[in-house]
Amino acid sequence: MISGIFGKTKPINFIILQGFLFVFYWFVNFVLNDNYYEPEKLVVKFVVLGILLFSVFAVDFIVKRNQITATNSFVILYFTLLIIIFPEVLLDDNSVFCNFFLLLALRRLISLKSLKNIKLKVFDATIWTLIASLFYDWAVLYLILVGIAIYFYEPKNIKNWLVPLTGIFTIGIIVFCFLLITDNLDFLSNHYQLSLKFDVIGYWMDSTKLAVYAIITFISVTLAFIKMSKLGMGKIITMRLIAISLVLGFTITFLKTSDDIYPVLITFCPGAIFLAKYVELIKKTTLKEIVLMVSVVAPFLILITEMIVK
């Protein structure tokens, strides 16, 4: 039944998932955590919700435009299910904004495979990555992905390697001027501390669901690459970029996670892509339906269990 609904790309899939996320967002904020927001803060929450819902469209656009998966909606389904498993990400506004801008950067890097307008796309990806780092300082690590993308597609053109420097200079000037006008020059030194949260090791050890998610995701990555040997080099490079994005996302999650910061959201897009690829690899219809059923039921069971425990 689930494969019958999400096994194809239909507008109803967006309506179901977007409608659910809209309700779930407010449920997490007002019911699950019993928060109260002043009118000004409530406006910000509506903006964050809008960015979150638009992120679902961005994820689907990246997948469909680049034909990363077959014609189904499994990626956005898993993206939504991962949010149910980790509802705390909806309390971290910076997580939603950082994830959105990293999606824009990833979109431009994947589009390099056309070998058209490479310098412009690298520049855009650098800009979006640096904007994302304004929400999480460690997001600057995604500049590594920019360099890897250049290496994959056109490493011999020295000008391509200079483009990220241009992007860094551009954002640096814009941010500096804005901070100068707002008399907030201390932001850069206070924000980009790139410090390690020493309690994060204990957090990862105590967070069983985070460890299980990481293990299952990397198993899916391994299985996907084993089965992709027959694909063209273009698609394999795309999947390599997504895999590296996933690794960087988990790295930032490890470095940045604390009591009120939940950057694991930035792993949901690449993670959902590989989980969807795993489902596609299942040939038996019955087994595929069972896997999808478990995938849908398990997040709700985890959520209910955590609510009971609290």
Structural write-up:
The chain has helices at 2-6, 11-32, 39-65, 74-85, 93-110, 118-133, 143-153, 158-181, 186-191, 200-206, 208-227, 233-256, 268-281, 285-309. With 310 residues, the protein is mostly helical. It has one domain (2-309). Helix 4 packs parallel to helix 14. The longest helix is centred in the first third of the chain and has 27 residues, at 39-65. The two termini are 33 Å apart. The model has no long low-confidence stretch (mean pLDDT 89).
In short:
The chain has 310 residues and is mainly alpha-helical. The chain contains 14 helices and no strands. The mean pLDDT is 89.
Extract low-pLDDT stretches.
none
* Pattern of helices and strands: HHHHHHHHHHHHHH
Oligomeric state, counting identical vs distinct chains? single chain
Q: Identify the overall geometry.
A: globular
* Sheet having the most strands: none
Ends apart, CA distance between termini: 33 Å
Separate helix tally: 14
Helix-strand category: mainly alpha
- Percent strand equals under 5%
Helix content: over 70%
| Number of beta-strand segments | 0
Write down the domain tally: 1
Arithmetic mean of pLDDT: 89
Radius of gyration using CA atoms only = 20 Å
Features:
mainly alpha; 75% helix; 310 residues; single chain
Task: Reconstruct the topology from this structure.
Layout: H1 2-6, H2 11-32, H3 39-65, H4 74-85, H5 93-110, H6 118-133, H7 143-153, H8 158-181, H9 186-191, H10 200-206, H11 208-227, H12 233-256, H13 268-281, H14 285-309
